């Protein structure tokens, strides 16, 4: 069990973690969510004693991390897959950890087998891919066979098979009664793995609840109904006390409704249904709604699909060298825009005749070289 009580961390005038109080309990996978800069990694570092809290307290099974004589036997953690010495083999990296915590040598072979690195156990870790480095970090977390495990972005760099493996591993560890605390930005994966959620924003606790309750409280759920007898079914729903909302695609959206009851109403009035489907929001939608006011780093200037980039002339292709609208180097002549259909293009060189419609303008041979200041030739 991990217990936080009023945990706070400040860096100068910046408050990274602001009076966090929650408990990570055994027997379930607890997801730790928050936007970038929310304080997740800082919180995990304070759990492990890597950062000293400004105020508040954090305990592991009732003790501070510094009070654990052989900490890997109590809590295993993956915070940074790159923390292994690149000059050591995977086996020697784990052996050093094992010897520092009085863990038997045979355990090194066991965890290498568990994470699938037996074949490369004697190779230096600096040659490992990102996914292999993640597996080595997970092996280090499992080394002491601890009752508490903490992972920060454990699926980073893993292939689909590896993601499936770590998902089942975390569920299996929780099923054994262990405490599993995992942070990730992959909402689709977290939805498949975690049963309980702790969500923070700007260092403050936003939610501490089950996965099902979190989605239900922070999203809109409804039943979609599609029927060729639109007016008749709308009258039936209204008479039954529902307030159907007509969607743009011709379907109905009925909130706070049981799909089975709607189907029974349609059958009672001999109405045909083409669709009757409950619509529930995803974890990502619920998360975005809850943390909308807590996002610290916003992206700006997104281009709407199908819209031309700023400064792109009609028919231009931004960013493609040699195409109209593409940026050109200093001293280079701009590529003329493509004219509308049926209109002659302007001449490529002064004194030349216009280019007939349908034929792209062709620059004179050597014109770019002559107009390049580096060539020493300029008209």
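-> sequence recovered:
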């Amino acid at each position: 069990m991990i217990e936080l009580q009023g945990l706070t961390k400040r860096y100068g005038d910046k408050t990274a973690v602001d009076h966090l109080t929650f408990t990570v309990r055994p027997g379930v996978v607890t997801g730790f969510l928050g936007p970038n800069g929310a304080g997740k990694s800082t919180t995990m570092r304070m759990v492990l004693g890597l950062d000293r809290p400004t105020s508040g307290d954090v305990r592991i099974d009732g003790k501070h991390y510094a009070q654990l004589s052989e900490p890997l036997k109590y809590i295993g953690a993956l915070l940074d897959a790159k923390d292994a010495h690149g000059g050591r083999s995977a086996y020697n990296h784990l052996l050093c950890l094992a010897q520092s915590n009085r863990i038997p040598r045979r355990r090194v072979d066991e965890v290498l087998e568990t994470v699938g690195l037996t074949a490369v156990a004697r190779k230096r870790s600096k040659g490992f891919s990102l996914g292999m480095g993640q597996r080595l970090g997970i092996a280090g977390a499992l080394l002491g066979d601890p009752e508490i495990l903490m992972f920060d972005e454990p699926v980073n760099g893993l292939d689909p098979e590896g993601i499936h493996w770590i998902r089942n591993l975390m569920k299996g560890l929780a099923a054994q009664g262990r405490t599993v605390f995992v942070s990730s930005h992959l909402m689709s994966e977290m939805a498949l793995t975690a049963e309980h959620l702790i969500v923070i924003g700007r260092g403050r606790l936003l939610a501490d609840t089950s996965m099902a309750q979190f989605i239900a409280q922070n999203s809109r759920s409804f039943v979609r109904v599609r029927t060729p007898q639109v007016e008749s079914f709308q009258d039936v729903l209204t008479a039954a006390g529902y307030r159907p909302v007509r969607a743009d695609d011709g379907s109905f959206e009925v909130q706070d409704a049981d799909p089975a009851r709607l189907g029974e109403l349609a059958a009672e009035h001999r109405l045909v249904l083409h669709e009757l489907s409950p619509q529930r929001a995803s974890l990502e939608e619920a998360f975005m709604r809850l943390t909308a006011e807590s996002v610290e780093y916003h992206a700006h200037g997104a281009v709407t699909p199908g819209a031309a980039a700023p400064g792109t002339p009609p028919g231009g292709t931004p960013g493609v060298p040699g195409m109209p609208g593409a940026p050109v180097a200093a001293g280079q002549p701009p590529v003329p825009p493509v004219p509308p259909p049926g209109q002659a293009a302007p001449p490529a060189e002064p004194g030349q005749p216009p280019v007939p419609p349908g034929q792209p303008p062709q620059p004179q041979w050597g014109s770019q070289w002559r107009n390049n200041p580096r060539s020493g030739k300029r008209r």
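The chain has eleven helices and 13 strands.
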